[in-house]
């Protein structure tokens, strides 16, 4: 898996989105750097392909209702 950050975008293999690789936040399972995903206003671990935070319960939230089950849904 290739993970790079260029011009406020993160590119994981061929999947590109707005966000950043966090240099001081790590996955509690695998210890990889977390990635912030702008579209969903939350962090995820690209190696585990899992969100770090649960969806909120606010029905008016503009982020959580559209969040896929897995961050890297192309996998």
Strand order of the biggest β-sheet: 1-2-3-4-5-6
Oligomer: single chain
Question: Roughly how much helix do the residues carry, as a percent range?
Answer: under 10%
Kindly name the structural category: mainly beta
SS elements, strand count: 6
| C-alpha Rg (nearest Å) | 12 Å
Averaged pLDDT: 93
Secondary-structure element order, N to C: EEEEEE
Beta-strand residue percentage: 35-45%
The tally of domains stands at: 1
The geometry reads as globular
Low-confidence region ranges: none
The major β-sheet equals:
6 strands, antiparallel
**Total DSSP helices:** 0
Spatial separation of the terminal alpha carbons: 11 Å
Describe the fold and architecture.
It is a single chain. The chain has strands spanning 3-6, 9-12, 15-26, 33-37, 42-45, 50-51. The protein has one domain. A six-stranded antiparallel β-sheet has the order 1-2-3-4-5-6, with no helix packed on it. The protein contains no helices and six strands. The model has no long low-confidence stretch (mean pLDDT 93). With 75 residues, it is an all-beta fold.
């Amino acid at each position: 898996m290739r993970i790079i950050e260029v011009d406020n975008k993160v590119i994981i293999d061929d999947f590109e989105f707005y966000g950043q690789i966090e240099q001081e936040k790590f996955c509690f399972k695998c210890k990889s750097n977390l990635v912030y995903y702008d579209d969903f206003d939350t962090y995820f671990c690209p190696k585990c392909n899992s969100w770090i935070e649960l969806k909120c319960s606010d029905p008016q939230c503009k982020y959580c209702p559209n969040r896929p089950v897995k961050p890297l849904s192309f996998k």
